[in-house]
Please model this.
Amino acid sequence: MIDAVRTLPMMVPRRVVTVFQAETMLMPKRESEMATRALARLEELLERPEPQTALVFVSAALDKRTRMFRLFAKHATVVDCGAPEDVAAAERWVRTRVAAAGVEIDSAGARSMAVLAGFPDRPRNDGKSGDVKRLRGEIDRLLLYALGQKRITLDDVRELAGPAALQDDWAMTNAIESGHTGDALRQLALMLDAGAAPEKILGQLGWVVRSKFPAVAPGDVRPAVEALFRTDLDLKSSGGDPRVLLERLVVELCAGKRSRVAGRRW
Model:
């Protein structure tokens, strides 16, 4: 990111660099020497910005007590875009975000997503509302699950919502083996929400490809292995949000398995 910011614009007066889901960078979940060095370089960038580059961070709410937020308040322009305060506002937010992807969603489905994300029926006096970050993640998962559909229904939302607790550590791999994308994504979400390490989940997916694909989908072994290596590299190099990277991999593995299952139906 810093290399991109320091690169001079070409044939235009200003270069624009946008960082999405910046909260994963600004508030890392795990303390490490690498994360500390990265934040130190970011602090230097904020204190000595590149005059010919506009750097935009798109982030969920940040803790205003942190040093990083204070640096943003001092050296940058902070724009609070607000957040839905109740179910009705969250439902409108869901429908707008889904529409931006060229898809429609039933009102009941949008409302169900708002309720699942913890939004109250009416604004609370303490200013707290539902989990916007979780809601955004659920929408991304839903759009991935409903890829190719023009309309998302309440049944689609329920299909992805799942139970509140994970019952079987291998339910995700079993769903992939059967080609059931919705079940696999739901189980993946439950594993991540329960605190499973992305590296452990990737190991399970690797086991499925090595042990099961040669028998159930031999034609998909090579692209599945390539997808595994790509995801492994992205995870190790912070090439994206681990949840999104694993969801993409699960969809790819399930898509190959579905094509094999469909080919046997006549």
Remarks:
- Residues 242-263 form the longest helix (22 residues).
